[in-house]
Amino acid sequence: MVCILVVEDEPSLALGLQEDLSIEGYEVEVARDGESALERALARSFDLIVLDVMLPKKDGFEVCRQLRREGARVPILMLTAKTQESDKVLGLEIGADDYVTKPFSGRELRARIKALLRRTVADVADIYRFGDVEVDFARCELRRGGQVVEVTPVEIKMLAAFVRQPGRALTREQILSDVWGHGTFVTDRVVDAHVVNLRRKIEPVATEPRYLVSVRGIGYRFDPE
Q1: What phi and psi values does residue 10 have, to the nearest 5 degrees?
Q2: Stretch 109-113: mean pLDDT, rounded?
Q3: Domains of the chain by range and CATH?
Q4: Mean pLDDT of 75-96
Q5: 0.90 exceeded by the pTM?
Q6: Could you tell me which residue, 201 or 72, shows the higher pLDDT?
């Protein structure tokens, strides 16, 4: 059974989410503050976390950030009452997989959850090597020449998207869908910025890319050989 951790401090909303998701056939646990959520998420394996931003003790951003620092790969869906674009960008940048803005419908939330559960890197080998680069998807680590290189969760997801389809040109729209999911507001420029950052970390010469090459008028192609 798929197990979901719901992190929400408003009792009525937490109960409503627990009942709604249980009816859908999910096993649901509820945490009411950021500290207990972090402890539970690190103590057992959840298939997905529904994480409110505004929480006592630790806010959702900090919970998400610490989980990713610990190497947790569990999909995270953030709930936020904030409408500022910068807050949503921050959530995605620190490792959240998707977000839903309050108030939301149960139907929308269920659809987002199902989409996240489908979108995993399970079809990528835990360890993938090319050149002097080794990517450990299980640990969310990248090593180059044996040395650990700091990468973000988004960069790991982007590498997984390319590794799935080596030698194939991917459009920016395809990359957005694979990494951030449908319906997000992330722009093509964000994709380009992450590609530039990845090149600095995996290319012998970042300005003369060998592995992550541009395809004019389309997007990018990963050439591991």
Answers
A1: -80, 115
A2: 88
A3: 3-118 (3.40.50.2300), 127-222 (1.10.10.10)
A4: 78
A5: no
A6: 201
